Amino acid sequence: MAKQKYIAVIDFGSQYSHLITRRLGELGIKTKLLTPQVNKNRLAKAAGLILSGGPQSVIKKPVPYNQQLLRLKLPILGVCYGLQLMARDFGGRVTGGKIREYGPANLKRHDQRNKLLTDWPKQSTVWMSHGDSVTKLPPGFITLGSTDTLRYAAVAHRHKPIFGVQFHPEVHHTPYGSILYQNFAFNICGLKPQKLTSKLKAIEAGIRRQVGEKKVFLLVSGGVDSTVALAVLNRTLGKRRVYGLHIDTGLLREQESRLVKRQLAAAGLTNLHVVGAAGAFWRRLRSITEPETKRQIIGATFLQIKAQVAKKLRLNTKSWLLGQGTIYPDTIESGGTKHADKIKTHHNRINVLAQLAARGLLVEPLKNLYKDEVRLIGAELGLPKELLWAHPFPGPGLAVRALCLDSSRLKQLNQIYVSKITVSKYNTRILPLLSVGVQGDERSYRHPLAIEAPYSKATSLHYQAAKLTNKDKNINRILLKLSGPNLNIGKIKVATLTPQRIKILRQADNIVTQELKQGNMYKNLWQCPTVLVPFGAKLGESIVLRPFASREAMTGRAYLLPQTVVRRIVRRLQALPAIDYIFYDLTDKPPGTVEWE
Ligand code: XMP
């Protein structure tokens, strides 16, 4: 048995670096997430190194790192950027922009006997997210696997325990990924699995340690994360030491605040208080069109309302700590680690809150977990299934599902030259709209490509979607037009957040939710955002349906609903006032995020 005890994961800023530690943890392997400039003395007890992915390019702007890491005589696995870094520094070549892959790819394994891919099938789906790629192997390296477009998708040194993969074995959508980490940890690094410890117990101990004799003022949206946070805080501290505050922003779903209050009370979470604050949110948001500004303002308004309530209650700020139901994806998507890019600022990670969190002044018992883990904790706490399996809803609410456009951007978007992309015989158009995506660990803000084809072609178009977004740098989403006039006559228009637009969107969201439940589809989906976009033919706009399947939202797939359900949804949405087009979003994550902004 090896003397060393853990695997060091060197974090170059990938969205998935922390997910690597989770996967290894599930195998009973200890890890440490360390920065690239870590001193080698800190690695004395490491059994192996994993070099993570990251948003930077090793050929343009590499992250400074301790080059001794590659000479430590430890087994090394480079993932994505980590592979490219090794390829460059061991004497190979990395090229930018030639092969871009975001989302699914098909890996064909070459060498059956290599330890890294033991027990891997000859062909399998792997998940990619890169714009640079290795185009020449360093001396001494061989290829273990390739995709249709990428020769060096999995590589190894002929004699030394050094390996690299361009894909991400840590994400749920690489189905054999855990086997790769198992091979690396057990067969290559020689580690043995440790017994798994109870997460709930560790969370409770953490709360006791941090809160001491104080009390917690917890912001509760009523979604899975904040509800589980409330339940675990109540159990650890007792209800009297926890004040749950639900803020009705006016941007929630139909009847949501009432439902939250009722459901949580029925689950025994009676220390929840609701405050109406729609006016404050409207006042601050009404002229805002830029997505990140919306998100910052919403986060800040939550804090202002919380401060007003605390003042009214005369709470002594010295004895009350602020609490949130933050989970890990909120932090990493907000650019919350040293080398990570900001994909979008989650409402609970605006600057002031991120700073408080970094100083240990926020009580966030679930901050290192993903939503699927939170659901398990909730089940352990006895919370009802309908609460735990409710679709997630973002803190900024419908505000980030109603795209806005100001006149300067309108001009800019109208001027953009957009090429025509052919997809079989169908009419296509790159829409003069922008939405957020995540590509190669970076934020993208690009156009959707809309295709005019019957819904019966959705499966084949979904299959082609990744190829289309890989090929054309201008687009990060693929839409299928479900209804509306010819795409070519559609125009964008100036739009802000108005009560009328939010009302239409709320109705659309309600229709979609009802039909998903009626069609027995609700439980198959992670969530199904309904997005209002200012693109129309006459006076109207468009609705985009985003049915999405995932386990923890770090990666996921567009989900194809049965045609009958789609037909019913379209018929009811068409009856809403001022809806010209209805689209179906066929984009996986990456390249698209779940929400549009
Ligand atoms: P994206 O759009 O980033 O979303 O792929 C991943 C998951 O997070 C939800 N989401 C949020 N949740 N505050 C939240 O509590 C936010 O600001 C926020 N933004 C996105 C999103 O709905 C999806 O489930």
Can you describe what's shown?
The chain has 597 residues and is of the alpha/beta class. It has three domains: 6-188, Class I glutamine amidotransferase (GATase) domain (Rossmann fold, 3-Layer(aba) Sandwich), CATH 3.40.50; 199-397, Rossmann fold (3-Layer(aba) Sandwich), CATH 3.40.50; 407-585, GMP Synthetase, Chain A, domain 3 (2-Layer Sandwich), CATH 3.30.300.10. The protein is built from 16 helices and 25 strands. It has a nine-stranded mixed beta sheet, sandwiched between helices. Strands 15, 16, 17, 18, 20, 22 and 25 form a seven-stranded mixed beta sheet that branches. Helix 14 (458-471) links the parallel strand 17 and strand 18 (475-483). The protein starts with 5 loop residues before the first strand and ends in a 12-residue tail after the last strand. The model has no long low-confidence stretch (mean pLDDT 96). Bound molecules: xanthosine-5'-monophosphate. Xanthosine-5'-monophosphate binds next to loops.
Structural class estimated from helices and strands: alpha/beta
Quaternary organisation of the protein chains = single chain
Bound molecules: xanthosine-5'-monophosphate
Shape, per Cα inertia axes: globular
